[in-house]
Amino acid sequence: MKFRVTKSDIVQAVQNVSRAVSTKATLPALEGILIKAYDNTLTLSGYDLELGITTTVEASVEKEGEIVVGAKIFSDIVRKLPEEILSFETDEKMIIYINSGKVDYQIVGISSVEYPDIPTFDTLDEIKISAKVLRDMIKHTIYAVSDNIAKPIYTGSLFEVTPEELKIIAIDGYRMAICSEKITCDSNTRFIVPGKMQSEILKLIGDDEKEVTLSVGQRHVNFSVENYSVNSRLIEGTFLDYNTTIPKGDATKLKVNTRELMSAVERMSLLTSERVQSPVRFSILKDSIKLSCKTAVGRATDEIPVDTIGDEVVIGFNNKYIIEALRNTECDEVNVILNGGLSPMIIKPLEGDSFLFLVVPMRLNDEI
Question: pLDDT tens digits, residue range 329-361?
């Protein structure tokens, strides 16, 4: 194999596919990047048996072939090379010769036959969506994806597709995030996408209006983002019927300034830590929210003005869950709905239903 390639192109490609490379694998090839050089195109792949990322880069290929090279050493080398045009060549002993100006490297590669195939599958549904829309939907829900592997079904988000709408739902047992957007497609399907895959998609999507194509199979899904292909196994199992968890009433309803409430909760949070935990108490009155927090460190109080419709209520929340929900609204003001001191808080936009965030309260045991 012998080819020449532009440094900026290969550095970016190596950086992105490396995120799917296993760092501790029983199979040495999985700690590497598969490079294929054919038809003046390089195809680079990283795969950890769960997530696969593949991309293509233009190159001047003199001799076709393929090889696996250690991801970390290869990434470090190409980033540090001085010239913009890089030359690569391999021999029958799987030695890779890398040249840039007066710099030469020789590193040991692995035969491509030892690299497992990234799964291919029959596409049952294909959904096209604006890259920006998909990015925003994932960004606003991924915070509620669980990291508890004891319940793997919730380490991903439910994608619920109809011909008119896409919904993404994430639940971790303490909070729920739902985002909805209008789309036009021919599909009517549901599937659960791992949180890890969604994190990688966020890193690949730019700030433009290009389309992302989702190809859904029986057990796998593929996201095509510009010249990147991201492949993952779907999470199998029965996702919670999320509609039944949303309280139906609105005994207490208030419009709040998102930044004011978030700042007040952050001030209460100064008394808490991973080791010292205590709920932030919300006393919701007709014209204000009084916030308080008491821990072994000390106590704090604050108050912000609001207009409340309905019942006054006292309720407690984990400060982190409230802050993350408010931050991900990306709205100046939101509607907050409560149904007593033990029912989850609902956070919605002032108009429409583009998102719905739900936060489960904590029991309050003392008074301040």
Answer: 999 999 999 999 999 999 999 999 999 999 999
- Could you give the C-alpha distances from 344 to 59, 179, 242, 248, in angstroms and in order? 55, 18, 13, 11
User: Which residues lie closer than 8 Å to 132 by C-beta, 6 or more apart?
Assistant: 205, 207, 208, 209
CA distance linking residue 157 with residue 164, whole number of Å: 19
Q: What is the pLDDT of residues 278-323, one digit of tens each?
A: 899 999 999 999 999 998 889 999 999 999 999 999 999 999 999 9
How would DSSP label each residue in 154-212? GGEEEEEE-SSEEEEEEE-SSEEEEEEEE---S--EEEEEEHHHHHHHHHH--SS--EE
CB neighbour list of residue 73: distance below 8 Å, 6 or more residues apart: 107
d(CA 42, CA 13) in angstroms, rounded, equals: 10
Angle 258-269/319-327 helices, nearest 10 degrees? Answer: 150
Closest by CA position to 13, among listed 86, 106, 94: 86
Both tokens assigned to 155: 């380490």
Q: Which H helix or E strand runs over 63? A: strand 60-63
Other beta carbons less than 10 A from residue 160's beta carbon? 18
